[in-house]
Amino acid sequence: MGNYISCTLSGPGGKSNPGKDAVTVIFPGCDVRRFDEPTKAAELMFDMPNFFLVNAKSLQIGERLTALNADQDLEMRNVYVFFPMKRLSSVVKTEDMGQLLLTASKENKRVHFGSVKVSPECDRSNDKDCSSPKLNLDDFEEYSMPEYFRHRMSMCRSKKPMLETIVEEHFSLRFMMMMEN
């Protein structure tokens, strides 16, 4: 009935988009790196010993974090995120998804405008820069709540019943009749 023509743009050498055929990994300091070669999860987890990798497709709010096995190959065109080990069996929060969205949109703008920055690999001689993340995902709750909401929450009182004795005054019926007249 006709010829099928692909709508994808092809680059030099017949490759469609060389940046798209890569594994994208979001590191704890919100650093985003792309790997063009097939990579195992163990290679990346070796550099970040107190963190585990999660496929971004499996992140759903309210679901538990599912860590990748160390011997698992990272699939091309997928995004992977590092989380701290103490969050291994915890539930995905809205703060996690918000942080992921902020990082992805920042990376998208950075690549879109052509100001690509190349970050050097960590030096083993300079371990303090490699081990400490720039942003800790656990402390994100403090900044996620707007100021007015935090103020309203601090002003709310709990609805606990008071356990004080109620003192009743006795009025005689005759006294009530005198007051009416």
Automatic annotation (TrEMBL):
<dbReference type="Pfam" id="PF14009">
    <property type="entry name" value="PADRE"/>
</dbReference>
<dbReference type="InterPro" id="IPR025322">
    <property type="entry name" value="PADRE_dom"/>
</dbReference>
<protein>
    <submittedName>
        <fullName>Uncharacterized protein</fullName>
    </submittedName>
</protein>
